[in-house]
Design goal:
Layout: H1 2-20, H2 39-49, H3 52-63, E1 66-71, E2 74-79, H4 82-89, H5 101-105, H6 119-135, H7 141-165, E3 168-169, H8 175-187, H9 196-211, H10 217-221, H11 225-228, H12 235-259, H13 267-278, H14 287-300, H15 303-318, H16 320-334, H17 349-362, E4 371-372, E5 377-379, E6 382-384, E7 389-392, H18 394-398, H19 441-458, E8 459-463, E9 488-493
Parallel strand pairs: 2-7
Antiparallel strand pairs: 1-2, 3-9, 4-7, 5-6, 8-9
Helix pairs in contact: 7-8, 7-19, 9-12, 15-16, 15-17, 15-19
Length: about 500
């Protein structure tokens, strides 16, 4: 009996030792524990640092620009600093996306949509979306018209709220206007800024970004835990947030399918026609794929842009001299006859520099969407096994001392050259880089400029009386993206 026990203990010890061994040439990092890997260390750091991107930053500072970890079954590397990130984005071997329970739960236990897919299906879907959106005016004058209309509607809406309550919550006031710009192309319709259902849906979108971090968390590694800890694991909050979004998108798609005729006027209508034309001949096109694609657009098209605008106004409250210079530039460029328009862009170099500096400092997406190694890769002296996940710390890049002098300072002038013209800065990648670069980058940049310029041109703002002794926090709420904490302001019209 003792011999059997000794053998069992020895076998258990051997299995634990094997489970904690790192692959040959894997990047340095904290010691792995059996089964759970580095989850205990990550959760402990999360409690003390409050933000996931700060966890990876601390580990990068300790172990170097490439850190190797294991979260449950998945190997993970975290890349930081300009040199390592630049090389990473140049390597097509890292263009994959992760698979797993968390990444499938949002798309009916399948790999669907554009954000968390790769390979041939992703290329087909992306090509169809980009071609169709361009035909509908994406990147052209009709898209600009949508942006400018929504900015003008936003002015009316904010002023009515301000007159009604004497103040407004300003962390999320751009939500509906921002989504309307994209949704006009996606569904051929816009929503009233007072639409209560859409406001609820936007709140749910924000919640889905806060429930679990970009790695997929413990739910992705141990999905069975949802049966034991449905709330703490994030599963129940995630499903509860997604269900109304799915229902809304299904209703929209069904309505368009039933009423659409003639030439396609929206991406959904074009996709429905493609389904009717190809039937099952093209396996990558399906009703579920359309729903997942719409969810990707609905989430990605609103969250980062809206949050960036919310942070931008916090910076204007904290740096009134910058706000004053923005308004002076707007007054000269626009005059008094109309609201700012995208055609004024060449005259708004300082305003655009301010938005660039806001994106650099606030880092709404501090970690780029997680990548996956499509094959074993030799990268900067390390061997990265196939299917290893990779997180790019854009936060580290935008605060890299080697790229930015005094990166902790808010200084828009760093994006202007000697002629006061906007310049591209090496090491500024708020939309990622490479093959998986954000496909909505131009739309986001145009929306940011028009919405921000219109707000600053139209309104002066001050903190509401109850909040006037404390400036809004710049740290933000943690999640897949960072979002500004709620704050209240009082508006007054400039003209």
């Amino acid at each position: 009996m003792e011999v059997i026990l000794f053998i069992l203990l020895g076998l258990l010890g051997f299995l634990c030792w094997m489970d904690t061994r790192k692959p040959s040439g894997f990047p340095p990092g904290p010691v792995w524990l059996p089964v759970v890997g580095n989850f205990p260390q990550v959760l402990r750091l999360r409690r003390s640092l409050n933000h996931y991107h700060k966890i990876w930053q601390q580990l990068n500072q300790k172990y170097g620009s490439i850190v190797g970890l294991r979260l449950g079954r998945d190997r993970l590397i975290v890349i930081s600093g300009w040199e390592a990130i630049r090389e990473f984005y140049s390597r097509p071997e890292f263009d994959g996306r992760p698979d797993g329970f968390f990444f499938r739960v949002r798309s009916f236990d399948q790999r669907l949509g554009l954000v968390f897919t790769d390979g041939h299906p992703w290329e087909i879907q992306r090509r169809f979306c980009m071609t169709t959106l361009k035909q509908l005016g994406f990147g052209r004058c009709s898209m600009v018209d949508h942006i400018e209309r929504e900015a003008a509607e936003m002015v009316k809406h904010l002023w009515s709220l301000n007159e009604k309550d004497g103040w407004i919550y300003n962390h999320n006031v751009f939500d509906i206007g921002v989504i309307n710009v994209l949704w006009t192309l996606m569904a051929g319709r816009r929503y009233d800024l007072k639409d209560e259902r859409l406001n609820t849906l936007m709140r749910l979108i924000h919640e889905t970004f806060k429930i679990i971090d970009m790695s997929g968390g413990i739910l992705n590694q141990f999905p069975q835990i949802r049966h034991i800890l449905p709330t703490l694991s994030g599963y129940r909050p995630l499903v509860d947030a997604f269900k109304p979004l799915w229902d809304f998108l299904r209703e929209t798609i069904d309505e368009i399918r039933q009423t659409a005729s003639g030439e396609s006027t929206s991406l959904i209508q074009a996709y429905v026609k493609e389904l009717e034309t190809c039937g099952k001949a093209k396996s990558t096109f399906s009703p579920e794929q359309l729903l997942a694609l719409c969810l990707d657009m609905f989430q990605a098209g609103s969250e980062t842009t809206s949050n960036t605008l919310g942070f931008a106004l916090i910076y204007m409250l904290r740096y009134p001299q910058v706000a004053s210079r923005v308004r002076k530039e707007l007054d000269v460029a626009v005059g008094v006859e109309s609201l700012p328009k995208l055609k004024h862009r060449s005259l708004l170099t300082y305003t655009e520099a301010v938005l660039c500096e806001v994106m650099r400092c606030c880092n709404v997406a501090p970690l780029a969407i997680v990548h996956r190694a499509l094959e074993t890769v030799h990268f900067r002296g390390f061997c990265i096994p196939k299917d290893t996940l990779a997180l790019v710390s854009l936060y580290s890049l935008h605060h890299d001392d080697a790229v930015w002098q005094t990166p902790e300072e808010f200084r828009p002038e760093r994006f202007l050259d000697r002629r006061n013209q906007l310049m591209n800065r090496e090491g500024f990648l708020p939309f990622g880089s490479g093959k998986r670069r954000c496909m909505g980058e131009n739309l986001a940049k145009s929306s940011l400029l028009v919405f921000f310029a219109t707000f600053m041109y139209t309104f002066e703002m001050r903190l509401a009386d109850d909040d006037s002794t404390k400036l809004p926090d710049l740290e933000g709420l943690d999640g897949i993206t960072l979002s500004p904490k709620p704050y209240r302001i009082v508006l007054s019209k400039r003209n």
